[in-house]
Write a structure and sequence with these properties.
The chain has 481 residues and is of the alpha/beta class. Helix content is 31%, strand content 22%. It is built from 12 helices and 20 strands. It has helices at residues 10-33, 49-57, 69-80, 91-101, 105-112, 137-148, 170-179, 240-247, 289-304, 349-356, 391-404, 457-471, and strands spanning 35-39, 42-43, 87-90, 128-133, 156-163, 191-194, 199-202, 205-211, 228-232, 252-257, 283-285, 307-317, 343-345, 364-371, 377-385, 411-414, 431-434, 439-441, 446-453, 477-478. Strands 6-7-8-5-4-9-10-11 form an 8-stranded mixed beta sheet, with helices on both faces. A hairpin with a 2-residue loop joins strand 7 (199-202) and strand 8. The longest helix has 24 residues, at 10-33.
Length: 481
């Protein structure tokens, strides 16, 4: 007779059992009550048992103990009984607050969630219509993220993509590129194509594919799209005049550029200066992937120690604008084979930081090296500080920010001795501080930080956060400060 005894530890079995019980409760909170749950910024929505257990493991870094699944399961049970309205809940922070405060759990939850208790029928209202103008690397990742967040707690609804028609089977190829990605893997779900209607259906969401070369001529209202936010991923226009063409189209309310904006356009790094997004703004920029990767970390350093001056060196994955083999390119050096060479090139990211963080204007220089990897880049921040520090103090400050700070959705922290660039593919943070690489010299005045960032996926999450802010779809955040 076969031995059916479990080979796993009793502790693991308990965690697995509780995580299994949490899955339907978390799903119900999301779909029926618009409640988005997370652990230190790591979402639990649409996650499996192992993902939930792994999310708890990251809480080890607060006091070197793992956040027990038992604690969060009790919280989820309590929340599920309260008929909550729309909310964003960080279970790790909520558990820490209850542990500190003590008392009866349900009484604690009743007081904490008094504003949304019993308001389960009050959701976010009609989801914001979103149109993706361009469907390249960033466009398709934005589609994946928005589609992955579809459900009861969804603030955005992807309605259409606008592209130029390149072939008779253009629609099939667009769907295939959404379905499979050599870097980010397969799309999580099902995708079907309705060629007669030019529609791609992804996980039950119909996405209208519109073929156009002129943004002013598209009539979105003919597809039932109203007051849409157009996310321009083409980079074809980077100033107000060019992007305002979108506003001439019927059914468009606002425009977001996924590239650095020129002139007086607001360049937003979500979490740093996103409060500058006002209801009356019709055109803004989400800056660049590098600017998003470094600015949150620079803000923490500036606020804590002050930055006298510094240099940013970007080691950046190659991009589509480079050549596969040596050929003519309008830019210096970028004509050389991207997969074979390290290519020195320019970057405006260091100067662009000042658009989101004005106190650093004129204090940073920058350069970039394109390297033969397809995704995930690194920024090396060489900073002269006004207030001296140490490696341990600096790392502790950034680690705490990644867990409980206002920029915890933008900054992550890792101190593993074995990580390499591919380990950060799929990170939803703007940047990840590599603590083991941190250096402090010159009696604590010179700090050198290494910040990883998924220049595709992490940046795309920052873009989605900006879209939600433009749409006025911010969820109330719990626990309250």
């Amino acid at each position: 007779m076969a031995d059916t005894a479990s080979t796993q530890t009793p502790e693991w079995n308990t965690q697995q059992e509780l995580a299994e019980k949490m899955v339907p409760l978390l799903g119900s909170l999301y779909r029926e009550h618009n409640v988005v749950t997370s652990i230190h910024g790591r979402t639990l929505v649409n996650r499996g048992v192992i993902d939930i257990i792994k999310a708890h493991r990251f809480a080890r870094r607060i006091d070197e103990t793992v956040l027990p699944v038992e604690e969060t399961y009790a919280l989820v049970q309590g929340l599920s009984s309260m008929d909550l309205g729309a909310a964003s809940v960080d279970l790790a922070k909520l558990a820490a607050k209850f542990k500190k405060q003590g008392g009866d759990l349900q009484a604690f939850l009743d007081a904490e969630f008094a504003d949304v208790k019993g308001k389960g029928g009050e959701g976010l209202g009609r989801a914001q219509d979103v149109v993706l103008y361009g469907f390249g690397r960033i466009g398709r990742l934005l589609a994946r993220i928005i589609l992955g967040q579809a459900g009861g707690g969804s603030a955005l609804r992807l309605r259409a993509v606008v592209v130029r028609k390149n072939s008779d089977d253009d629609l099939i190829k667009r769907a295939s590129l959404l379905r499979r990605d050599s870097i980010h893997g397969a799309f999580e779900g099902t995708i079907t194509v309705d060629e007669a209607r030019n529609v791609i259906a992804a996980n039950g969401t119909e996405i209208q594919v519109i073929y156009s070369n002129d943004p002013t001529t598209v009539d979105y209202t003919s597809y039932g799209i109203e007051d849409a936010i157009v996310v321009d991923n083409t980079g074809r226009w980077r100033d107000d005049e060019g992007l305002s063409q979108h506003l001439q189209a019927k059914g468009v309310k606002k425009v977001l550029l996924t590239a650095p904006g020129k002139g007086e356009m607001k360049n937003i790094v979500y979490g740093v200066n996103s409060e500058a997004i006002l209801p009356e703004d019709t055109i803004i920029s989400a800056a660049s992937c590098t600017t998003n990767g470094i600015t949150p970390v620079l803000k923490v350093i500036q606020d804590e120690y002050g930055i006298d001056h510094g240099h940013v060196e970007t080691v950046h994955a190659f991009t589509n604008d480079q050549n596969l083999t040596d050929n003519f390119h309008k830019g210096s050096r970028r004509g050389r084979a991207a997969g074979l060479n390290m290519v020195i090139t320019e970057t405006g990211a260091a100067k662009a930081v000042a658009k989101a963080l004005p106190e650093l204007k004129g204090k940073l220089s920058g350069n970039a090296i394109r390297v033969p990897t397809p995704d995930v880049s690194m920024a090396i921040l060489n900073l002269e500080l006004k207030t001296p520090t140490s490696v341990d103090e600096l790392n502790d400050r950034l680690r705490q920010e990644s867990l409980t700070g206002e920029l915890h959705s933008q900054i992550d922290y890792i101190d593993s001795p074995e990580v390499v660039s591919t380990d950060f593919v799929g990170s939803n943070r703007a940047g990840i501080v590599d603590g083991l690489a941190t250096l402090v010299n010159n009696e604590g005045k010179n700090a050198i930080l290494y910040v990883w960032y998924d220049n595709e996926y992490g940046y795309s999450h920052q873009v989605v956060r900006c879209v939600k802010k433009m749409a006025g779809r911010d969820l109330p955040v719990f626990p309250r400060a």
